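Reading a protein record of the kind used here takes little practice once its layout is understood. An example of such a record is reproduced below.
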Amino acid sequence: MVVEGIHMHTGSDIMDIDVFLQGAEILLSVAKDFKDLQYVDFGSGFKVPYKEEDIETDIEELGEKIGKRFKQFCYDYGRNLTLMFEPGKFLVSDAGFFLVKVNVVKQTTSTVFAGVDSGLNHLIRPMLYDSYHKIVNISKTEGRHRIYNIVGYICETDTFGVNRKMTEINEGDILAFHNAGAYCFTMSSNYNSRYRPAEVLIHEGKDYLIRERETMEDILKNQINIDIFSEHKALQAPAMDLNPENEVIYNNITIEQKQQN
């Protein structure tokens, strides 16, 4: 067997570049023992900011430091190898927005709820591991601000955001979820027989439909109908009748007999 490449999975949200470099050192210490390598893959884990005050991985600084170290490794290894990364989330996260429509606004004694036409079947991250997505009312970008809980239509814990301050919401308004380019549609499902939404690409000011909205036909198309019940008699309720003494007969046993038994 020839091992042509070696790879590490670092997970998400690397905030300290030096920590990433420590992981790289471990990978390179293993790589030197494989003599037929063509590439070394450092994975990803670059931090994407979800809030305005969030830290973002400094790609320029990381590139400078990892490039210098990898160049030295290749020199010691005896030949040049390919340096690889897998920056998927870092590239597409903030390129996507998830749009929902407000179905209802409900005021309680302590909270204002904005219920939308979506749920954990479309964007599960906030419910699955309490991830944060910025939510903006794009139907009303200016005006009075209020505090809302944004909730979905699934009859379980289906809360997208708690105590979010945004411009006043009315029924029919469109809310935009930021950072939906990664792990939004890819983690969606047809839970509760709900359809997955359409996807639209915006390029140079023009919109292109790149995925159609699902229909019930899409949900059912892979199901196979099998006729197994016609081969068996349908289950029927036990025969019940009254004898001349108005005693209920149940499978030829009277209630009095059943009680005696």
The helical segments are 17-31, 59-77, 88-92, 125-129, 216-220, 255-260. Residues 157 and 235 are 38 Å apart (CA to CA). Residues 252-259 have pLDDT under 50 and may be disordered.
